From TrEMBL:
InterPro entries: Sig_transdc_resp-reg_C-effctor, Tscrpt_reg_LuxR_C, WH-like_DNA-bd_sf
SUPFAM superfamilies in alphabetical order: C-terminal effector domain of the bipartite response regulators
HTH luxR-type domain boundaries: 6-63
Pfam family of the protein (one): GerE
Transmembrane stretches, start-end: 142-164
UniProt superkingdom: Bacteria
Key words, A-Z: Membrane, Transmembrane, Transmembrane helix
Gene3D superfamilies with a match to the protein in the record: Winged helix-like DNA-binding domain superfamily/Winged helix DNA-binding domain
GO MF: DNA binding
GO biological process: regulation of DNA-templated transcription
Protein's name in the database: HTH luxR-type domain-containing protein
Amino acid sequence: MTSAATLDLTEKQRAVLERVDRRVPIKVIAAELGVSEARINQHIRALKDKFEAESLNALVEAYRAEPDYEYKGEDPYRKPIYRNSQLPDEPIFPDQGSRVDPGEIVLSDAHHVLIDVPWSGPREPVVVPTALDGENAVLLRLAAMIGIAFGVVAAIILVVSAAVSVGEVLDGKASIDASSQDS
């Protein structure tokens, strides 16, 4: 086994080695150092190669056998602070950070949560509106198609008649009598 002083460990490798010495899980090491688990595994592989160790236990023993090794662990009689890494470090609403004390209930704590009741079924995108779906879906869809067709035909007739009327007014064929406005 070679000496850590002669190995020239990087800061990240030294940080990983200290955490492995404290038996910290790889996920936690990755979260603390802000890198991926794959990168931590690469550091551990490089450390195993440098220390010529076959396992993590052998790596820790080789690290502890170094002359400049100091135990930096926590007091074994104290419970470590539990930290849930799934919770955000900053507040969900950044503008509330300094306004209220932690734990104080204020009106602005309420926010909308889009959760449906369990019996309503999952929300999925639908192609057909729910009004045109159901037991009589064929009749309702047929009625909607006929209504839309009549509406399109009526709109075309109105546009054509308006265009003809405007054309007659501009050509001078149509006029508005003043006598018809008096009554």
